Amino acid sequence: xxxxxxxxxxxxxxxxxxxxxxxxxxxxxxxxxxxxxxxxxxxxxxxxxxxxxxxxxxxxxxxxxxxxxxxxxxxxxxxxxxxxxxxxxxxxxxxxxxxxxxxxxxxxxxxxxxxxxxxxxxxxxxxxxxxxxxxxxxxxxxxxxxxxxxxxxxxxxxxxxxxxxxxxxxxxx
Length: 173
Prior knowledge:
CATH superfamily: Metalloproteases ("zincins"), catalytic domain
CATH topology: Collagenase (Catalytic Domain)
Largest sheet: 4 strands, mixed
Helix content: 40-55%
Number of strands: 4
Number of helices: 6
Shape: globular
Radius of gyration: 15 Å
């Protein structure tokens, strides 16, 4: 993992009935690496919340009209290149919400540790905040390739394998 020095800030919170899957230090290192690799030079603020399945269910219903929990939600606020931001003004990039119990179960089904799955989903959420998507096959291939590259940089296990987002695309139906 690269140790980057910059002015990005990560506000990390955890519901009482959830657990922090990755340490605050690792979340900061991963977040800084992703933003640096994406060429983001403007200081960014990112909120990261670890929540219960019940809380995620409510958020997924509210923001995506999906009446079920999910693994990760990204709620975009501003883009770093927003013309309304003054030079040097921090960008409130957005919120990433991670459902810890859901992630732990999902990790088992994919043969990963909860930490590996959480790392992937945090990178995935950050890329969504930066404008990536996976609704179309071409977009998904671009996002998967970017996730592969970024995970290779931040994962303590090199060569973990190719990211497949088809599981996320199947949630859309």
